[in-house]
């Protein structure tokens, strides 16, 4: 037999030393005990004969998807939303348990839909529950940033995987500051929503139908090499999208002042592309859903109260725990007491391997937590410890073009205790306030052992003893 | 209370830096509120809400420094603080960022190819790490003990599907293409390949063959349960296959306790299908000992069987043989040869290693028992083993020789190792002999000699 050219040592250093003395290089694993109470479940899942191929299949399915922008259309048409139906971010939530920004966004959206004249009147409407219903965006092939409220009258981006015909949806980004998704519902917020639905979206519909399909996955590939991580920094992506759509916007036949206003709005909103990045990520991850035995996370989402994950091998079940406080910087006079816990479907970007996972490619934003450029590099490297593979399309130049860490593995999170790193905005905790800051956050640790326990249960029940 | 608002046209820092600067300045003495920001419409709104009047000519390309101070005397300090904070925010972190070590076997294996995984984490965690190696298609040695049987089966089934070799669990010794893993002796390459279910049994064989000038290319441990009715020799088959594929191996030696009956037939059949001959050395009552097995291998290879070396000489002393061992198989072998009423202890047994290092690494416990056993009036002769090789105590004779020289009972020692071992076998033997011990290379030889000194072979 040939001599091993290197040895990976996991455990006693003494044994590694003995190998090193024989002039064979040793990689020493920094092994630590897994999360408390997960040992037996980890073994059961590791023994599941379906696991390895299921995870390979899940990762390949996800990486195989190219998301293209094919349309912009009212949610009533493409999502079949009826009057009184509200989609929201995160796992399922009731009005009673909803946080301030979630309530504020629901109230504003109720006014936008004409269900109430004054957003404040919507409180009684939601408390009564009559003629209104709440449902996660994720249950309708959609995603929404922050509160993620999507209603019939809002227009949505339509993304399609041309190979399968599957589609995902997301509203248009309203900009920063006092906006509905952060729980603001002042008159100017509602007015902006009407402008989006009445002017911007129809214009974009015409432009996309003329210029599309637009390769959103391809724009993500490029923007990751231009300093965007596609969650908290979307500048390059926004401008590339504008570049791709501008000629068709100009020739759309819409009035020049409207076209100019639309371009000004898009160009001035650094986060405009986020609402394209998110459904692109969901489109890819949805390809990995319902693969028995796979331990890959296919969704991370927060409703401002709960943080939930879904896993490829456990169907539509949500594993939830309390949303965490964001560690970051605050706008103006705001401080930690003003911030709501983590909220939004935007962690779909991290689930797909960008956002916080691609921090190394966006060192400009690492200072959100007083960090340094080495911190950014280390964050991305650390995420490789909990992922199944790398995305060959999405690469990080400063890490020698290594692909982004992709496919969060529930078992690896439980084994290492390393939690997914999420870049996010911070909503004010009171309804109506809007954005108060931005920073970094992780999921509540306990949801991963919960998902693991379910995977173990399924593995044992399907494995003949 | 006084406010200070200042526009700095042409100055620029990114919004995150400025949020940080603002936070720093807010913490300075005499500063009630501070906001340093680019004068974007959004920021101007924020500043207005904070109560600052921003000049109408402000553009997004101007930096605004807005301060609310307890009184005007704090202004100079606050502005100095702004400058300092802006400088600090742009200072490079000079510290080099070392790449963190991998946290799982899977992650480590991704960093390089052609690796062998060597796992010695607690038994409850070993399976998960070992599966990483199997999943990646890498061979793995599981040094850990206390791995549940069903996990061993699952591991070896997955490995068999992928053509991966699993050594262990509870595999103490392996030589893979000349590289010693775990407690392994340094041997020259040669015509023999070993598959062994026992660690120190394998080491005895390596030491004897080395003495006879026969090299060993690879010695693959498979763990004590591999030939059980449950595991059914999954690892033994793969190990045999690997050695059969190796053109340097002329004879394969399979060392084990007798397998479960139907497993024995399966393995014999498999061994018979290989192009390399397989010598099956079965250990146990009424069977040849390890030394006899080594001699049989030598004869099969057409080599001369040497006289196994003995250094020093111990005197007869009637009584019981007290065997104090660090090697489990060596202890079993001695016990089988000597039988009742002689007593034998394996200090490597789980009962003695809980909460402490293996006696091949830490001799303290056996040394304590040695003095006690010697003081027992029923004791005639003391029988010990010393196992050399990688990973073992760097100089076992240093403390053992001192302990032996203080005893008034004859001591016979089997020193299992090769001349090339890091401990220098020659020096170890000499030190023990100088202390009064009679030192053998063959454990079986040492045992028979101890019996003779204690009053004759049974």
TrEMBL record, chain A:
Coiled coil: none
Source taxon at top rank: Bacteria
Protein name per its UniProtKB record: DUF1116 domain-containing protein
A Pfam family the protein falls into: AllG
InterPro entries in the record: AllG-like, OXTCase_su_AllG_h-dom
UniProtKB/TrEMBL annotation, chain B:
Pfam families: Ligase_CoA (PF00549)
Ranges for domain ATP-citrate synthase/succinyl-CoA ligase C-terminal: 324-450
Superkingdom field: Bacteria
UniProt name for this protein: FdrA family protein
Organism: Nocardioides caricicola
């Amino acid at each position: 037999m040939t001599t091993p050219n290197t040895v990976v040592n996991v455990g006693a250093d003494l044994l590694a030393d003995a190998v090193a003395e024989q002039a064979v290089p040793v990689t020493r694993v920094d092994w630590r005990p897994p999360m408390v109470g997960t040992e037996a479940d980890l073994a059961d899942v590791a023994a599941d004969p379906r696991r390895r191929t299921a995870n390979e299949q899940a990762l390949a399915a996800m990486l195989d998807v190219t998301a293209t922008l094919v349309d912009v259309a009212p949610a009533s048409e493409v999502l079949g939303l009826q009057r009184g139906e509200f989609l929201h971010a995160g796992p399922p939530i009731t009005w009673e348990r909803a946080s301030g920004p979630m309530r504020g966004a629901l109230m504003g959206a109720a006014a936008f839909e004409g269900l109430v004249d004054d957003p404040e009147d919507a409180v009684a409407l939601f408390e009564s529950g009559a003629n209104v219903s709440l449902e996660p965006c994720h249950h309708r092939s959609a995603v929404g940033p922050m509160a993620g409220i999507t209603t019939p009258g809002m227009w949505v981006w339509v993304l399609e995987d041309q190979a399968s015909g599957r589609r995902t949806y997301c509203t248009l980004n309203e900009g920063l500051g006092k906006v509905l998704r952060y729980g603001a519902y002042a008159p100017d917020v509602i007015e902006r929503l009407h402008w989006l639905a009445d002017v911007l979206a129809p214009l974009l519909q015409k432009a996309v139908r003329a210029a599309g399909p637009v390769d959103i996955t391809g724009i993500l590939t490029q923007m990751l090499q231009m300093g965007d991580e596609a969650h908290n920094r979307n500048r390059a992506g926004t401008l590339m999208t504008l570049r791709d759509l501008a000629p068709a916007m100009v020739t759309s036949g819409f009035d020049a002042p409207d076209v100019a206003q639309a371009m000004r709005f898009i160009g001035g909103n650094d986060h405009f592309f986020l609402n394209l990045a998110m459904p692109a990520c969901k489109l890819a991850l949805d390809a990995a859903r319902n693969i028995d035995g796979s331990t890959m996370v296919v969704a991370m989402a927060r409703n401002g109260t709960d943080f939930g994950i879904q896993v490829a091998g456990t169907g539509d079940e949500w594993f939830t725990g309390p949303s965490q406080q964001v560690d970051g910087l605050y706008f103006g006079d705001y401080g930690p007491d003003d911030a709501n816990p983590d909220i939004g479907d935007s962690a779909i970007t991290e689930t797909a391997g960008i956002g916080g996972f691609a921090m190394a490619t966006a060192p400009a934003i690492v200072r959100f937590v007083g960090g340094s450029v080495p911190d950014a590099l280390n964050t991305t490297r650390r995420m490789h410890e909990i992922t199944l593979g790398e995305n060959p399309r999405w690469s990080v130049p400063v890490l020698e073009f290594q692909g982004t860490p992709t496919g969060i593995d529930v078992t690896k999170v439980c084994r290492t205790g390393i939690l997914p790193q999420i870049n996010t905005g911070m909503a004010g905790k009171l309804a109506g306030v809007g954005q108060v800051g931005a920073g970094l956050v992780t999921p509540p640790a306990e949801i991963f052992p919960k998902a693991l326990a379910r995977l173990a249960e399924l593995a044992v029940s399907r494995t003949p003893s | 209370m006084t406010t200070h608002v200042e526009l700095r046209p042409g100055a620029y820092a990114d919004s995150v830096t400025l949020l940080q600067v603002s936070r720093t300045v807010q913490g300075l003495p005499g500063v009630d509120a501070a906001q340093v920001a680019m004068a974007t419409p959004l920021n101007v709104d924020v500043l207005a809400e904070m109560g600052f009047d921003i000049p109408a000519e402000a553009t997004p390309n101007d930096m605004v420094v807005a301060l609310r101070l307890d009184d005007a005397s704090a202004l100079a300090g606050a502005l100095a603080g702004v400058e300092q904070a802006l400088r600090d925010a742009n200072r490079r972190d000079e510290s080099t960022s070392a790449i963190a070590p991998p946290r799982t076997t899977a992650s480590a294996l991704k960093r390089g190819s052609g690796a062998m995984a060597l796992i010695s984490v607690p038994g409850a965690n070993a399976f998960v790490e070992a599966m990483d190696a199997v999943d990646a298609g890498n061979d793995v040695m599981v040094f850990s003990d206390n791995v549940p049987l069903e996990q061993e089966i699952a591991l070896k089934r997955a490995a068999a599907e992928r053509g991966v070799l699993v050594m262990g669990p509870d595999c103490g010794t392996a030589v893979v293409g000349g590289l010693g893993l775990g407690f392994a002796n340094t041997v020259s390459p040669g015509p023999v390949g070993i598959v062994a279910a026992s660690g120190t049994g394998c080491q005895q064989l390596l030491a004897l063959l080395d003495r006879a000038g026969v090299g060993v290319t690879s010695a693959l441990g498979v763990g004590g349960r591999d030939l059980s009715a449950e595991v059914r020799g999954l690892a033994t088959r793969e190990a045999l296959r690997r050695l059969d594929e190796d053109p340097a191996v002329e004879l394969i030696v399979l060392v084990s306790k007798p397998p479960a009956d139907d497993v024995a037939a399966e393995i014999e059949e498999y061994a018979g299908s290989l192009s390399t001959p397989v010598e099956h050395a079965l250990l146990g009552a009424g069977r040849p000992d390890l030394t006899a097995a080594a001699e049989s291998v030598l004869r099969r290879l057409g080599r001369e069987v040497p006289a196994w070396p003995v250094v020093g000489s111990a005197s007869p002393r009637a009584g019981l043989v007290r065997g104090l061992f660090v090697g489990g198989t060596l202890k079993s072998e001695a016990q089988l040869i000597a039988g009742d009423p002689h007593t034998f202890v394996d200090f490597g047994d789980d009962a003695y290693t809980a909460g402490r290092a293996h006696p091949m690494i830490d001799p303290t416990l056996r040394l304590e028992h040695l003095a006690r056993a010697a003081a027992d009036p029923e004791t005639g002769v003391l029988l010990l083993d010393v196992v050399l090789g990688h990973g073992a105590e760097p100089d076992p004779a240093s403390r053992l020789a001192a302990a032996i020289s203080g005893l008034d009972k004859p001591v016979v020692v089997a020193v299992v190792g090769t001349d090339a071992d890091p401990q220098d076998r020659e020096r170890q033997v000499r030190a023990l002999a100088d202390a009064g011990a009679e030192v053998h290379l063959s454990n079986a030889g040492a045992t028979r000699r101890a019996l003779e000194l204690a009053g004759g072979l049974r």
